[in-house]
Amino acid sequence: RLRKARLHVEKAIKEKKIFAVQGPYPIIRRLLRARGWVERKLPRNSKQLKQQLGDQKKQQLEKRAGDEQGKAVPNSRAGAQLSLGTTEPLHHPRPSDKNKGEKEDEYKKEDKEQCNEDSDDIHDLMSFLVQDQVPNFLWTVRLRNIDQELLPRIEVVNRFPRLQALCTKEGLCQSLQNLPWFEQVDLNTFFPRCYRLGLMDEQDAFIEDFRLTAARSLLKLALQKVGDKPVGTEQPPKYDKVSPVSHPMLSTAGLRSPLYPQLVEEALEVCEQHLGVLEHQDIDRNTPSPYLTCIPWERFLHEYYRVAHKGTELVLSREQREQCQDMLQRLEKQLPQLGIEGNLNVWILKPSAKSCGRGKAQGSTGHTHPHGEGISPSLCCPGIVCATRLEEVLELAQSCAGSAARVCEWVVQKYVERPLTIFDTKFDIRQWFLVTDWRPLTVWFYRDCYLRFCSQPFSLYHLEPARHLCNVSIQKRYKALQADPRLPPDKIWSNTQFQAHLARLGRADAWQQVIVPGMKAAILNALRCARDQVGSRKGSFELFGADFLIGKDDLQPWLLEINSCPTMSPSSVVTRRLCANVQRDTLRLVLDRKDNPTCSIGAFELLYREAPVSSCLSVGVQLKVTGCSLKKP
């Protein structure tokens, strides 16, 4: 056994096939071993990991001097020696932080899977033999855990540095604002409007947007009201008793007091002014900004809340109804996101640099008010808040007022109020793509993806996390809930199942003609905007997971966020298969394809490869500016 292990190690070192895996990736480990690679196991604790990698130079010098004679085999390629008597632990130590319960569960699961696949302890022996070798291939969850001095010596790494511009909510919001410099594409056609509340300019822009959206929503509600009964919309819940704890805006007196008669006229005036700005009429005439208009916004929003959230009666004349219809038709031509807005002006607040629903949000958990004022003022899941009132958003914005200008604690984004649902249940799409180079930009799109469902029917009048947040890490808290018996218990569909559903709806062509092209375009636009801010490293690659919602009417995909290092945990039958496949195909693309350019790369397809740009300036060219000075007359 020892001889076999040594021979295998010698061959792996000669062929540069030493790998290290940090994190729960048993499939990567198994696939690399099947290719003849030898694993150098790393400690799970980041401090010990850096110490272990940082001591390698010293270990190798000692071994070259012959300090470990009799305990090593020769390195036929570089002259280094391999120790059988290393003092580094073979198994990963537990993290010291007692509060990371979910991480410990993940580690236990990984250990169990690793034990199952390591039934032959020859892998343990070979791991001892290569403890002083720098891995040729590294697959890690966090790049910062690796010693930065030794990282450049690792030939292939599955992570890129400095991804904040792409993979944080704040960074993506900021990067996509620069899209006009790269592509003649309207950002509002694929990315819901987003603002960083820590910046006063963007906070003011959000306030203006919120008010304008409320005015448009009022026009929609006016057209849908017949007496005091909404037509074609979900009825707000009603209760007989009023809770003593309520929002300041929601008083019982407000339910009985009549709406002031100029409400619809003011909404029409604001929309007319906004339309003038959109049509650039303000260039030739003095069109006041809707944000600076003389309309009393506090009173207007108060009345709008009564109509939208309480079902207060709104009566229109025939002329006003026609004016509302005409205005919305004109706005539709100028506003690509009018179709996703709905009537209730819901916005979603997210911590700028968190994922999986994590964050610092404080407040009540998601609920509907017991007094039945219609829609709940806010939903608060760990780190994610849905709000329907301006003052709530601004109160949260105060928490980052003292932060550094470069860090915004919250971003606020327009909530997609009219998403496509399946069996009245909200879902999103997790779509993988792979970047193998940033300069020139090279992107690969994965043809398979999966859908993540919520646990309760979609409703804007009930803002519980179970109805609105599709993250698996959130929905696993609601395992006992089932939105519809036609959906699987694990709340996951493959894209094949989704295509079959579209076919039953008579939209079989939408997947290939609308959804996939839309996702590809959104991903490529985001990458182009963030490329100059991302750390590029030859030999690195990264698998990303983009999250999309689908619009209800036109089935247009809307990009929500891009995740680095997406989870590969098999949370369902579908993800067990797809996650295994995407890991297999990733290794085919980044490893096998180097030796065999014609090998299969599975479900990956080349999305974009930037043409190399040759320099137009030759070495040694001298530049000068010629001209004459202008004399003052």
TrEMBL record:
GO MF annotation, one: ATP binding
Any one Gene Ontology BP term: cilium assembly
InterPro entries to which the protein is assigned, alphabetical: ATP_grasp_subdomain_1, TTL/TTLL_fam, TTLL_monoglycylase
Pfam family, one: TTL
Compositional bias segments (type: Basic and acidic residues): 55-70, 89-115
Primary location class: cytoplasm
Reaction equations catalysed: L-glutamyl-[protein] + glycine + ATP = glycyl-L-glutamyl-[protein] + ADP + phosphate + H(+)
Annotated region described as Disordered, given as residue ranges: 43-116
GO CC term (a single one): microtubule cytoskeleton
Keywords: ATP-binding, Cell projection, Cilium, Coiled coil, Cytoplasm, Cytoskeleton, Flagellum, Ligase, Nucleotide-binding
Record PANTHER family: PROTEIN MONOGLYCYLASE TTLL8, TUBULIN MONOGLYCYLASE TTLL3
Name of the protein this chain belongs to: TTLL3 monoglycylase
Source organism: Alaudala cheleensis (Asian short-toed lark)
Underlying gene: Ttll3
